[in-house]
Amino acid sequence: MPPSTPRAPAKASGLDCRLAVLGADVRLTPHRREVFDVLAASTDHPTAYDILDRVKSRAPHISLATVYNCLEHLTTHGLIKQVHLERGQSRYCANLHEHVHFHCETCGKVIDAHPATDFDPAKFWNLPKGTRVTRTDLAIHGTCDACASKS
Amino acid sequence: MPPSTPRAPAKASGLDCRLAVLGADVRLTPHRREVFDVLAASTDHPTAYDILDRVKSRAPHISLATVYNCLEHLTTHGLIKQVHLERGQSRYCANLHEHVHFHCETCGKVIDAHPATDFDPAKFWNLPKGTRVTRTDLAIHGTCDACASKS
DNA sequence: GGTCCAGTTAGAATCATTCCAATTCTAATT
DNA sequence: AATTAGAATTGGAATGATTCTAACTGGACC
User: Fold this and answer.
1) Does B80 score more than 60 pLDDT?
2) Cα–Cα dist A42/A93, whole Å
């Protein structure tokens, strides 16, 4: 079945929400926008379920599958990041500034930590020749201040 | 087991195998020992299933549940490390030297990279005051030399 | 008004583990 | 050698997180 001429993107309706990020023009449906807004307003690195809960107050009929779809779309288009600190649920993060994650092993809290100075992994580790680096994920595990002072 | 089989000497089998690691005295059953040996002989960061396959050639009746139990025991006793590079299966690693993981996003290969110079995360990131760091996991994602030269 | 299509949906299926109850093994004690 | 308590091991069931699937919807273009 030969494809006909490419259809112009939907416009002048709910589907025409767009957001220019990092030079890319990402089409945002209302649901994607809600999911993105919820995540952008969160600093606690919510899971897909957390996001579902929060989005439901504004879009009561959204399904978990849609939340996953939206998160996937937003992730592949670089608007958000998926975070894997331990096995189990993935967490999501709309902080696109360079940062690393501190994970408290006692209370499970995740805190963004921003660089104090420039960091280039190739300076510190001997990577095989020819290796191309696209991103680095640093997770720092330990005990947060609150938990440390309790014990 | 045939009744005529003479009982093996207590010292050569059974629960009395031990391994001193990092000052700890870790009791190793034959299965734990097999799992550890298989992992120590691997450089490809195998999954629990991979390990099951490899151990089976020496201990044909071992079960997946036992492999998971052994991996858990070895992990909590610090003989091996569990690695989470992406969601899905956990991988395991018996390299206890300080190192980070390079993950090729094209072929999935995982390569250990050792430090070229000293590295202290607290120097590079502003962690909240009072934070206690127990370990850091750095994953470097990109394309390995082999995959990079193919494209 | 019909067709197309991306987006959406509920529910089924899958995957990786984790749990569980039953069995077997080991070490210490009789 | 027999007894026993506790640890290790087992297959299978259960769980939890995600991914898949097939049907449905609503607007865009004819």
Assistant:
1) yes
2) 8
- As a whole number, mean pLDDT of residues A20-41 equals 80
Distance CA B14, CA B24 (A): 19
Residue B94 is given by DSSP the state -
Q: At what angle do helices A48-56 and A30-40 cross, to 10 degrees?
A: 110
A140: left (phi over 0), alpha (psi -120 to 50) or beta: beta
From residues 109-148 of A, list those within 7 angstroms of strand D by Cβ.
none
Does residue B65 approach strand D to less than 7 Å at its CB? Answer: yes
Q: Is the Cβ–Cβ distance between A133 and A122 less than 8 Å?
A: yes
Pairwise CB contact (< 8 Å): B123 & A111: no
Residue A113 sits at φ, ψ, to 5 deg, of -125, 130
In this predicted structure, the answer to whether residue B122 has a pLDDT above a threshold of 50 is yes
Instruction: Tally DSSP H helices, then E strands, for chain A.
Output: 5, 7
Task: With beta carbons under 8 A apart, name residues in chain A contacting B145.
Answer: 128-131
Taking 90 as the threshold, does the pLDDT of residue A150 lie above it? no
- Cα dihedral A76, A81, A86, A88 in deg (nearest 10): -60
B123 interface with A at CB cutoff 8 Å: yes
Residues facing residue A18 across a β-bridge? A27
